[in-house]
Amino acid sequence: MQVAPPSSTITRCDVCAIRHRAVCGALSNEELAMMNAISRQRVLQPGEPILSAGDTISWFGNIVTGAVKLTKLLSDGRQQIVGLQFPPDFLGRAFKERSPYFAEAATEVELCIFPKPAFEKILKEKPDMEFRLFQDTLDELDAARDWMLLLGRKTAAEKVASFLHMIARRSPMIGCAHHNGGDEIRFQMPLSRSEIADYLGLTIETVSRQIGRLKSDGVLQLHATREFSVLDMQRLAEVSGE
Asked: The pTM is what?
């Protein structure tokens, strides 16, 4: 029978929910101890800014729980949502001096933060971790290309269904989902309808109309302004064109 190690030897890394899926999942126990020594936890409330575009980057982080909204600011003051990040996504650009975007907590967010100099030093010394970060970067690039397809070719119905399907699949990682039995997934939407419209390149009226249609077809159920249940994930995937 295995005996649990003394509580004094257990670190944040040992109990981290995203340990094996984050960039530090490529490290040995000894190397994880190094990461634990330089890391700290930070909790942000919905709407709280995390990074500002043009800020000097002093730290990086892994998203442990919650959803982060990434936006770019246009010269006339308008903002465009350019991405959403979820656990175990990596927040920040290694080996870059300034942040290219504005990051804001869309829900309550927990971050595991590493100071930039120490993290980049470990990256240079640990090729497995650098390779994991490279893989994550390529995954992010693939996701951006898929989003280009969605924005450029999909219909309004497919766009809204694709977005809801993505949120429903990621909601357990965000920490805002629960199951009431069967296949139903119930979750809190991290974005407002105006933000969804911005993200999808649609009007608020179109987003509301498509959500209403999915509700009429028995795919969705609405409980409150931002509380949804997906009653038929297979049907939602079909409508999205996946």
From this structure: 0.80
